[in-house]
Design goal:
Structural class: alpha/beta
Number of strands: 8
Number of helices: 10
CATH topology: Rossmann fold
Largest sheet: 8 strands, mixed
Radius of gyration: 19 Å
CATH architecture: 3-Layer(aba) Sandwich
CATH class: Alpha Beta
Strand content: 15-25%
Helix content: 25-40%
Order of helices and strands: HEHEHEHHEHEHEHEHEH
Length: 279
């Protein structure tokens, strides 16, 4: 029997997990998100060497260290331009981007809008806990205006950022929301997002019970969206503008063709590049 005819064993979720132990706080929703990502990759049977996970800075951005595939831990708010450059240069790779509400919607907010506009075939997974957890509990762009804390007594009084609305207006081709407390449902959403062509955005409500213990109640507040996914931007806009923030499921599936410039042949070798930068 030739090597080509030998059946490879089916990949399972643990095949995508690295040997590095996560260091999130006990009860953090990101543990479940990590599990959902590996389940989705196993469902798709993607070879680990064909997957790249890119991140910025924050609790959620530790994800690349915890998966056994290619990864890059970038700087604050810059995960999407890194991922965009990788995908257009290597369209054969499945590129996932892991971010948080601070990293993705504050310093990375401008990149978020333009990544959606460009519609490169990426899957953008944002773990939204409505607080800066890594830096000890400041309000984030998605924090409720009346959330009272030691760092913002009485609340900020500022309207929260609405990521799903912004994603739709900017041109995202797939928009969904999930809840970390439902890892199997979240894995299904991530699977659908990866399969859908173009820029796919998945907001995951991921409780930070260390700095937002009130978020333990999210498990009683999340609910399935009462309507089917739509490809009509007008209908999707009306739905998202009246959203209570806890609808889960696929909310919009667009039909725009992904942006992918032609990839030319390399004109230099690695040795050529090394010589140019030699001191």
């Amino acid at each position: 029997m030739s090597m080509d005819t030998v059946c490879k064993p089916e990949l399972v979720a643990r095949d995508y997990k690295s040997d590095i132990k996560p260091v999130w706080c006990p009860g953090c929703g990101d543990y479940s998100v990590l599990s959902s990502i590996t389940k989705a990759l196993a469902e798709l049977q993607l070879p680990p060497e064909d997957v790249a996970v890119i991140s910025g800075i924050g609790c959620s951005s530790r994800i690349p260290a915890y998966v056994d595939c290619y990864g890059f831990h970038g700087v604050h708010g810059r995960s999407l331009p890194l991922a965009t450059g990788l995908k257009v240069a290597r369209p054969d790779l499945t590129v996932l981007v892991a971010s948080g509400d601070g990293d993705g919607f504050s310093i990375g907010g401008n990149h978020f809008m333009h990544a959606a506009r460009r519609n490169v075939d990426l899957t953008y997974i944002v773990m939204d806990n409505r607080v800066y957890g890594m830096t000890k509990g400041q309000p984030s762009p998605t924090t409720e205006p009346d959330w009272d804390s030691a760092l913002a007594p009485g609340g900020t009084g500022i309207s929260p950022f609405r990521p799903l609305v912004i994603a739709l207006a900017a041109g995202a081709n797939f928009i969904a929301r999930g809840f970390a407390g439902d890892p199997n449902g979240t894995a299904k959403l991530i699977t659908e997002a990866i399969r859908h062509p173009g820029f796919s955005f998945v907001e995951l409500l991921s409780p930070c019970i260390t700095f937002r213990p009130d978020q333990k109640n999210w498990k009683t507040q999340v609910h399935d969206a009462v309507v089917d996914p739509t490809d009509d931007m007008g209908r999707a806009a009306r739905r998202l503008m009246t959203d209570d923030g806890f609808n889960t499921g696929v909310l919009f599936t667009g039909e725009r063709a992904p942006y992918q410039p032609p990839v030319g042949q390399a004109t230099a070798t690695v040795s050529d590049l090394e010589e140019r930068f030699a001191l």
